[in-house]
Amino acid sequence: MTDLDDFDRNARANGLLIDTNLLVLLIVGSVNRDRISRFKRTTGYSSADWDLLIGILEQISHRYTLPHVLAEVSTLTDLKGPDLEVARVVLLRLIEELREFQITSADACATPLYMRLGLTDAVIAEAARLHRCSVLTNDSGLHAALAQEGSSVVMFNHLRDLL
Questions:
Q1: Measured over all CA atoms, what is the biggest interatomic distance in the chain, rounded to whole angstroms?
Q2: Which end of the chain is more exposed for a tag (fewer CB within 10 A), N or C?
Q3: Which of 69, 59, 66, 65 is CA-nearest to residue 13?
């Protein structure tokens, strides 16, 4: 059994929390796949990455987020023109679909990861610890911290490299 198999099994059993940058990719690609490689926050991704992310999410029935992550996503999906309104509608639908864990900022700041990773990543780590959900990220610092704590985590780039 590989780490990826363990991740998949845990995500199917306990759900998946998607990190900020991947939710930004999800929204931008949902608005207009052609903008993925041209939008300032998703230039490192392609439409194939969006397809991969969609494929992963379709396999997992329990998908989670956090208010801290959603606030970042709302700010980072600052598309121009009519695409901004479409992005807001896509985000609204995501909010309706995802289950939101409630972790207070004070609780996250009380963890050792807060000083190293900042508030949002500390909240993600706390949610993974409390709810035993898997985390999909492309943040190497968050990935390393979660892996060290024994949480179920995988780097999106690693999945992309497997294909």
A1: 48
A2: N
A3: 59
Angle at 30 between CA 28 and CA 32, to 5 degrees: 70
Rg for the chain, CA atoms, rounded: 15
The Cα–Cα gap between 71 and 146 comes to 22
In the chain, at which residue ranges do the beta strands (DSSP E only) sit?
Answer: 16-18, 63-65, 99-100, 134-137, 153-155
Asked if the model's pLDDT at residue 1 lies above 80, the reply is no
Both tokens assigned to 42: 């998703």
**What would the pLDDT profile of 105-133 be if each residue is shown by its tens digit?**
999 999 999 999 999 999 999 999 999 99
- What pTM was computed for the model? 0.95
Residue 161 has what pLDDT? 84
The one-letter code for the residue type at 145 is: A
- Residue 65, phi then psi, degrees to nearest 5: -150, -175
